[in-house]
Amino acid sequence: MLDPVDDRTWYVRRDAEASPEAIVDRFGGGYRLRAFSLTESRRTQHGVYTGPELAETAWWRLRDRPRG
User: Fold this and answer.
1) How far apart are CA 39 and CA 23, in angstroms?
2) Domain of life here (predicted)?
């Protein structure tokens, strides 16, 4: 789910009570997807998308992808 922080930033969470897993923020002409961290330098970037919903979908696909 997308949880609005302000008019330019959203947290990506599994549900309303879960901790944020990613951040989507307005960036130039798109929306930047980054892994959540309290430290700005540790927020891993995962691309720029045309909408916040597409960025959220990309996050869940990244999380569900088998590693290895």
Assistant:
1) 12
2) Bacteria
Cα distance between the two ends of the chain? 27
Q: What is the pLDDT of residues 4-24, one digit of tens each?
A: 999 999 999 999 999 999 999
| 49 in Cβ contact with 55 (< 8 Å) | yes
Q: Which of 47, 49, 51, 60 is nearest to 13 (CA)?
A: 60
pTM score above 0.85: yes
